[in-house]
Amino acid sequence: MTFKASQPLLEFIHRKGGTELIFIMNALGLTQIGLILLCTTTISSLQCNHLHLQQRKLIENSLQLLDKMGEKFPQQCLKEKMSFRFPEQVLKPRQKETVKVVIEEIFQHIFYIFSKNLTLAAWDGTALEQFQNGLYQQIEQLEACVIKKQIHYFWSKEVNRLKLKKYFQKIDCFLKDKKHNLCSWEISRAEMRRCLQLIDKVIRKLNN
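Now predict its structure.
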């Protein structure tokens, strides 16, 4: 009889270790488990090989959701606009793999900003949730595909990383100073749109 593994079971196998995994192996058979793990590894490799295409699609979707989330930029907020000056040099490292680590960190910062104190934002709840889920999906994909040990070591020591951190801290402080009012969120939404557009350009250049 051919054993067909369900997705929850595959996730369970990845998460569990030790005695639980041994128990499953005894129940299903070493050969079947081996085939399951081989298939999931192959699927992961294929996903990583097409990472840039997935990222471009997800970023495009994220930009659409940012637009869908709210109305056009309110005229009354123009006087409150400020320049955050995204440090574009962080997206120009020497190694291609380092760019992926940088992009992942940018997504983490955006996810953090768009996950709290949103009461006064007056945005479409469904679009906001989809935007958050899309960011999380992009972070998960990069986590799975980027080889990080040495890359993370060098990136953690770079001055550019500090510049990136300061950029997002500036946005976070701006929101706090404005008590997360509607205009502060609309200005931040416009800034995140520019940020994602820059990432999209970089991903396109990397694969030309």
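The chain has a mean pLDDT of 76.
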